[in-house]
Predict the 3D structure of the following.
Amino acid sequence: MDYTIVKKQDEEAKAYLISSLKNKVAQELIERLSEEYLNQHFVLYAKKDEVEGILLYQKEDYAIVYMAYEATVVASLLLQKLKEEALHKGIAKLTCQLAEEALPILEKEEFVLIENKDGLVKAECFLQDEMLGKNVKVYIDHPYGSMHPIRENVYYPINCGYVLYDIDGDVIDAYVIGPQEPLEEFEGVVIGVVYRKDEHLSRLIVSSPLDRIDKEKIIQLIGFEEQHFDTKIVWALWN
């Protein structure tokens, strides 16, 4: 029988959560903590005849705060389901802080280790890398040469806009590299994805497939915005 993955805050999920916490949390705190978690987080759980794994994550940024499971296959299924849902919502990356025992499963599911300390691991999984190399249309809402709406005396040295991500109207912000004139739309290929350390959204770097622009030049062009953040850029292999 295949596992069913359920997104629901119900008594079955709560009972499994309480049971999994018994060896880690003082008994008198179990009810309070489980109520708090279930009120502030979404819950995914896997079951056949009964619940065999549970994953709790924050509603806003999908950060994973707790996972318990009977078998590694269950944990993998829960993480895969969460990645699918996060991608559909335009979430750029997943982060987690879990018990060290979860590290092999996290690595199998393409999470990158940030820190392993005192029995806890911090890790993150970049989700928008799949956009690299894709052809997209950018709808420009901040054209080349226009003034920045927030930063005083700053103008846009490139065209900036957004890409429609799915049929629900979710969008991803995008930098257009190359044209040095105001545009309304631009069709090109995604050559890079910008991730910000403390944000769950990403920015795409889009250029003409015929252009080969130096990475350092691109970093300078988007620096008017990204200099204010701790960023990581993942590049397309051919760029």
